[in-house]
Structures are given as structure tokens and as C-alpha cells.
Structures
1.
Amino acid sequence: MATRPDFLIQKRIAQDNRYVAAADYAKKMDRIAQVSGWFEGKQKFDFHEGEKRSKTFIQNEMECCAEELKIRRRTRLRQLYEAEARQWEEELAAHGLAVQRQHY
């Protein structure tokens, strides 16, 4: 058998080169996985941040609407009471009676 004298050395060098290439590839894939994980996390965080702002905005709007509704209801109730008081005074006036506003 005629084999080259450095056959085993060349075989080991080729195997080492394949190991180095595989290690480089693994390192490259690890970097890609880290970047992808960071990007996905950022997207997820940005979505939740926007969602939080949106919920806060909606909650603030609902509180303002509730306050405005209370003001409108109080105003309408006051107007109703004043209209009923005028109507009652008119009915009393029709019978010759009046409401005494100031008590001395």
C-alpha cells in the first residue's frame, strides 16, 4: 500500500477545519438567535407599551365622560326642581296663596 506519509496529519487537519467551520456556524446561529430574540422581545414590549397607553387613554376618557355625565344630570335635575317649584308657586298663586321665602 502506498499512502502518503502525512496522510493522517492531513486527515486530522481537515477534521479540525470542519470543527472550526462548525463552531463558526454555531456561533453565527447563536448571534442570529440572540438578535432575533431581542427583536421579538422589543416588538412584544412595544405592543404592550402601546396597549398600556391605549388602556390608560380609554380609562381617562371614560372618567371624563362619567364626570361630564354627572354634571349634565345635576344640571337637568336642578332645572327640573326649579320648574316644579315655579309650577307649585303658580298653583298656590291660583288659590291665593304664596310661598314665604324669608322667615323673619
2.
Amino acid sequence: PSIIGWEGEPLPRICARITYHGDESFWSRNLEECERIYYAKESAAMQVRKPIVVGFLILVLFYMVKSIVAARALRRRERIDPNMVETYRAIQMLTRQLRRAVNAR
């Protein structure tokens, strides 16, 4: 597989490019050998590219999980403590009662 791509190219032309041996007419006469060479190159390329792609996907997944965990940790830090809310409401209620007591006199 070429960097630019071989899509649509005839197989004899591809073999002439990857082997640097013979031209299209040579590889047209030796099509079985050309197919064997092409599939060997294709499988070798996949053996190199597959681990790279899998590694990249694992890296992306790791950073996605890391950002989710960081976002949840940030949300937990910003969350108001329920005990503090209860204490605030109790103080607010006591303040109201004191105001009523002062106004009742």
C-alpha cells in the first residue's frame, strides 16, 4: 500500500512500482506472482498499521476516561456539603425566631 494510495490502479502497475523489477507488461504475464507479492505487502502493512491504530485508540480512550474522572472530581469539589446547608438553615431559622421575639416586645 502506497502512502498516496493505489486505489483504481491495475495490479501489474502496482507490482512494477513496489518491486522495481519489470514493467506492466512483465507483471501482466506473471500475474500470479504479482498477486502473491501484493498480498504479502498488504499483510505486512496491516501487521504494522494495526498495532499503531489499536495503540492510538487505547490512548484516546485513556484520555477520554481521564477527562471524565477529572470532571466528576471537579463536580464533587464544587458540590455543597449537605451538613453545611442544614447548619445554615438552622442558623437562619434561629435568626428569624430571634427577630420575631424582638419585634413581639
3.
Amino acid sequence: TNWDGPIDCLSCIADLSESKRKALQELDTDAECWEQTHGLDCSSSSSSSSEAGLEFPRRPTDAKCDRAWGVWNTSKLVHGGWDDLPPRQQEALKTCGWTKAY
């Protein structure tokens, strides 16, 4: 399975809508991993992630940022296909513009 995306969430997290921020929370990432992977300079963003009221889960101690995806290497995004993901993560991907490409 190939994937297309994440075109709708390629912004500094603090600048995203609430629904897109919540979607990224479901994808096993944090602001640092997401923004650095996608080459986003968020130092001049309108507000920081914490000021925007967005609290990401704490990165597991053994997790590292997967620079191909912008999520932790423990995420099912890295290790599985679309059909292996729980419905909440599939919906999060759709919110960010990812689609299952055949």
C-alpha cells in the first residue's frame, strides 16, 4: 500500500486548526519531531504548541523520531499498512489529507 499526504497538516503545529492538532496527537508524534522532519521553522510561529493549548503525549523513552514520517519510530504508521491502523488513526490521517493510494 502506498500513502499520499500529509498535505493538510504541513504547518507549525501551533498554527493548525484544533481538529488538525488533535489528529496529529493521534499519530504518535510531538511538535519537535513533526516540525523538524518537515523542515518547518516554527520559531516565529504565532504561538508555541503549549500556548495553543496542545499537549502531546510524552515520547516513550525508547522512541526516536522517524524522519521519513515525522512520528515516533514506535508508531504503527512506520511499521504497518493502512489496514493495520486503529480506526482513530485512520481518521486522523484523513483529517491531515493522507489517503490510501493503490
